[in-house]
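1st attempt posting a full record on here, be nice pls
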Amino acid sequence: MIGGIGAVAIIVVGALVVLATRKDETVGLKRRIRIDDFSFQVDKVYEIRSATGTDLVAELTVNNEAKRVDFDFDPSLIVLVDENGKSTKGRASAGQTGALHLIAAQSGKTTLEFPLPKRAGHAYLQWAFGGEVGRSADRILFGDKRVQVK
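the predicted structure (as tokens):
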């Protein structure tokens, strides 16, 4: 019985430490957002007209800050989140794959496009490892980290 209480105490203390050390962070252009050994920064944003409405175009620098691990960046790892919390995956800009293979300690540049909602107020770009479940886990473990783009 005491072992069970000890295990519960360790879990509670661990959860409190995670919650105490996580930090929400909203930054502007040309500021890095880091999750684990990877980071990205938005270098430039602008809007273009598309067949479906207006798209936000974001020029990104993606950084693999790991010492020994390669990183395959996929455009779907970055989402646009509007002021209502609705997220939209990015896609490669015309003429690009958007994907990057970064060896350890390497950086690369890519351009992504995101459809803007009709009434776009504030909008942010953020990591979306593992889809919505992964994004929720990232929020719990690392805090809400995002780049304000609109």
